[in-house]
Amino acid sequence: MEIASRTGRDPRDLAVETFAAAVLGAMLPSIARWAANPSENLPDLLDTALVQLAAGLPLTGTR
Question: Which residue from 5, 12, 26, 46 has the highest number of Cβ atoms inside 10 Å of its Cβ?
């Protein structure tokens, strides 16, 4: 697993698995939204989702 090798962790490390699952989980709503409306820009949706994840998923403040 690339994440494990980049971080020097075992691929079965719970932190590695949790990180990978969080990234995939953040991507799913973007893919579903794009599938329902293909005119939306999938790379932009994915970028927005991953920026939200990296920021700790804040739900307060400005959008």
Answer: 26
Q: Is 42 contained in some domain?
A: yes
Asked if residues 16 and 9 have their Cβ atoms less than 8 Å apart, the reply is: yes
Q: How many domains does the chain have?
A: 1
In a domain, residue 63? The reply is: no
| Whether this model's pTM surpasses 0.85 | no
The model's confidence at residue 63, banded by pLDDT at 50, 70 and 90, is low
pLDDT in tens, 10-35: 999 999 999 999 999 999 999 999 99
Q: Please give the single-letter amino acid code of residue 6.
A: R
